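DOMAIN: structural biology
WANTED: fold as tokens
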Amino acid sequence: MEIWITLIVIMLVLSGLSYRATQKAQDTRPMFIWGFNSMAPVALAYCYWGTGDFGHKALMIVFVGIYLLRMNIVLTRWYVNTAAAKLGGVIPEQQQPILAVMMVNIFGWLYCLPFYWAADQQGPFGAMQWLAIVVYIIGTIYHFGSDYQKRRFKQNPNNRGRLLNTGFWGTSRHPNYFGDFLIFVSFGLLANHWIGLIAPLTNIGQYYGDAIPKSEKMSGERYGEQWENYKRKVKCFIPFVV
């Protein structure tokens, strides 16, 4: 019971702070920053109340820590090159604080739910933990690598008006989203419980139900025929598959 009371308090505080910060900024950046970073206190709360050993809890915190370090770099230093930055002209300002609260709760409750079971794991790492490490590494390479490649591409003035379609972006139209999905798959694997599926299922549902359609629409409007040719050659999400 203590863990749930702790989480309710954390989520109420973060929801209020994210609402106020986004309302004051009148920009989409705070809602993403607050949403992603809500994972840190939630993961720590699961570790504090969990009955697992140090090794399993440490692995969970390392996963979250590396992920949030990378996302904060993207959301601060590289933000202008992200699809999220373009949503300011798509999402009405009055809706942004509400979406900030929604993001905090999606990340804090649904994406972190596997940690409830992960924090209770004990003993040597088993097949699920080692598989989680492999999936996490692949996801991190795809997620960070594709964002870094896009940033380098956008910084080159010779690429103005051109579509990035090589490297990671030649394997999938949304390689950063695919990498992100793998990371949440790894979170689910840490749980060693079927309910861990809630994290990757929420993630892929969010992408296919919202982020990918918006991103593809904006890209189609910006790049026209270049985008249509790209769509015919490169798969949408899973590299070379679908």
User: Anything to note?
Assistant: Residues 127-155 form the longest helix (29 residues). The chain has a mean pLDDT of 94. The chain has one domain: 2-233. The radius of gyration is 18 Å.
